Automatic annotation (TrEMBL):
Name of the featured protein: PCIF1 WW domain-containing protein
InterPro entries listed in its UniProt record: PCIF1-like, PCIF1_WW
GO MF: mRNA (2'-O-methyladenosine-N6-)-methyltransferase activity; RNA polymerase II C-terminal domain binding
Domain PCIF1 WW as annotated: residue spans: 137-333
Length: 390
């Protein structure tokens, strides 16, 4: 399916405006007050260093936020709508007659002494090389929610065709979203949505009863049920929808690892508070991993503030548990790349910044899943790189 030509023009116009505009505005003080100062945020400091003119104190980061925000949101909405349309169109093509060539092909590769196998998905001229380990994981996720017919059964090939098509559509969405191409050496920088190590999730399940993630994807989820950004392509693999669209949460214990974006984290904090306040007798527990950006970051200030006081669980008297920078590890956000899945040196990385861990529970949740001092220390140990802990 060809991309919408009007959408291309809108994206191009936005890019040209960003690169050519020299105007500036004083900035929305109410909005700006919620954002970290340039001194506290290296990304804003970098942006502001590029500004050579304009009113004093009005750096490029403020100008960009105020002047471009509404236009960017409008264009991104158009991109999102177009992506959903194209995904729906491609999925409808999987029902073509059996005597026609497959829309999507999948070569899962074979393990060899040369290194981990790469799986190759192809749709027309578009080729995606991804970790063979991840394709196996995604197949297992899909099978958990869509049990396959017996091998040799007439329906098996239809099931396989549907799986391949849904796998490609989901992977293409994420590869496009993060702006990286796992097939091109020059387009591999960046780190989309990192995750805690598997040992941490296993511990959370065993000790804190966690069974679901509120911010995940089929590519980085640990549990078979999770909430994600793109339900239209993620649901076949277990997505329960977008966390921000959820009107309520079932009773349970949840892991919360949002993308490290201030606006997303603020919305997350406010929605968690609403769920806790409205939970009544349903046991709710949230174990939240966020960067240690200081209380000037709105989400962190909120969760450490008065409104959350009744729900915070920390045995040392503070609002959160701190995993110090360079003393814990995460899984790379591009773990699904062909050269990352089975390669521990690429799959894991030591986190340079501190990570705050907030445990928020209502009374029923705290009674069912108590966050004791022993568990607090055990969680920090499970976050450490192998050479420094478990």
């Amino acid at each position: 399916a060809a991309p919408n030509s009007q959408l291309r023009l809108e994206v191009k116009a936005l890019g040209e405006w960003i690169s050519e505009t020299s105007g500036s505005q004083a900035g929305d003080s109410a909005r700006g007050a919620r954002r970290r100062s340039a001194e506290d945020c290296p990304f804003r400091k970098k942006l502001d260093s590029l500004t050579v003119d304009g009113p004093a104190g009005t750096g490029l980061s403020i100008r960009f936020h105020v002047e471009v925000n509404d236009q960017a949101v409008r264009v991104l909405k158009m991109i999102s709508d177009e992506a959903e349309r194209m995904a729906s169109e491609l999925l409808s093509l999987q029902d073509s007659p059996a005597d026609k060539p497959a829309i999507v092909t999948l070569d899962e590769g074979e393990r060899s002494s040369a290194g981990p196998p790469a799986a190759v998905l192809q749709c027309g001229e578009d080729i995606l090389r991804v970790s063979g380990m991840h394709v196996r994981k995604l197949r297992q996720l899909y099978e958990a929610h869509h049990p396959p017919p017996a091998i040799g059964a007439p329906e098996r090939e239809v099931w396989e065709t549907t799986f391949r098509t849904r796998l490609y559509v989901m992977l293409r969405r994420y590869v496009t979203f993060i702006g990286l191409d796992p097939s091109e050496e020059g387009s591999r920088g960046g780190n989309m949505h990192a995750a805690a190590p598997e040992s941490v999730f296993a511990w959370l399940h065993q000790e804190m009863g966690v069974t679901c993630e509120l911010f995940a994807s089929p590519l980085n989820c640990y549990f078979s049920q999770f909430y994600s950004a793109f339900p239209d392509v993620d649901w076949p693999f277990g997505s329960q929808g977008s966390f921000f669209d959820a009107e309520s949460l079932p009773e349970g214990s949840y892991e919360v690892g949002p993308p490290y974006t201030e606006e997303v984290m603020e919305l997350m904090a406010r929605k968690l508070l609403a769920f806790l306040k409205g939970s009544e007798d349903r046991a709710l527990s949230f174990v939240i991993f966020v960067p240690d950006w200081g209380d000037d970051c709105t989400a962190l200030g909120l969760m450490g503030g008065k409104e959350f006081e009744a729900y915070r669980q920390s045995r040392h008297g503070g609002a959160y548990v701190l995993a110090k920078g360079r003393e814990h590890q995460y899984i790379s956000g591009v773990q699904f790349f062909a050269d990352s899945g089975d390669d521990a040196a690429r799959r894991y990385y030591v986190v340079p910044h501190g990570t705050r861990i907030y445990v928020l529970q209502n009374k029923a949740g705290a009674a069912r899943w108590p966050f004791t001092q022993e568990r607090e220390q055990a969680l920090l140990e499970h976050l450490k790189p192998p050479s420094r802990g478990k």
